[in-house]
Specification:
PH-domain like; single chain; elongated; 41% strand; alpha+beta; Rossmann fold
Length: 206
């Protein structure tokens, strides 16, 4: 989601300076006390006089965000969908390689009817590749050849595993003719990193 700020937060009688962050599923604060507020549990959100006021079943909190308060309030009320964050456009040619949550596949089918599973079609806009081991990264050159010049590969892997990390994906990019451009929290248990063909090499693809 990508919103961060250093601010003062009041929650009940507690007041603290600290770091606030708006993530895909939570509003977080770390200071002299900590908050982890599920967005799905927020009952009310309001931006007033530079303050973001939120209430949820466990309490209320006021984030002194200044001019950014309205932006945060809108993002809490209307969070972008995962497909929007991943750049999946209506009618896009998409490929899914490996095992993904059923809900993601259903959402994809609702956005585009051009979805291949198992093997990408030529001129794919996006390829989603589930990986869990460093040796899986050897597939990147093959996946790259299926892309449109301006297309992208999302490598998706389980969070919290030492055997396969974000740094491993980044390190494999140059050897496959790819550069990383974006990281997302794909779900509570999965991370994703997008890789694309460098602009200077797109006319030489293949």
């Amino acid at each position: 989601m990508g919103l961060e700020a250093t601010c003062q937060v009041r929650s009940g009688r507690a007041v603290s300076e600290g770091e606030a962050r708006l993530e895909e599923a939570h509003l977080l604060f770390r200071g002299e006390f900590r908050l982890k507020i599920p967005l799905a549990d927020i009952r009310a959100v309001e931006a007033r006089n530079g303050d973001l006021r939120v209430s949820w079943p466990e309490g209320e909190a006021v984030f002194a965000l200044g001019r950014a308060a309205q932006k945060w309030a809108l993002r809490v009320r209307y969070p972008r969908s995962l497909l929007d964050k991943l750049g999946v456009k209506a009618g896009a040619r998409v490929a899914v390689v490996g095992s993904f949550p059923d809900g993601f596949l259903r959402d994809l089918a609702g956005r585009t009817d051009d979805v291949a599973t198992g093997r990408p079609r030529k001129d794919s806009d996006l390829v989603f590749a589930a990986m869990a081991d460093r040796k899986d990264l050897a597939r990147l050159p093959t996946l790259r050849r299926a892309l449109k010049p301006e297309g992208g590969i999302w490598v998706v892997w389980p969070k919290g595993q030492k055997a396969f990390r974000e740094d491993d994906v980044r390190a494999a990019g140059p050897g496959a003719g790819l550069v990383d451009v974006k990281v997302v929290s794909f779900s509570d248990t999965l991370s994703g990193l997008k890789m694309v063909i460098p602009v200077a090499h797109r006319k030489k693809k293949g």
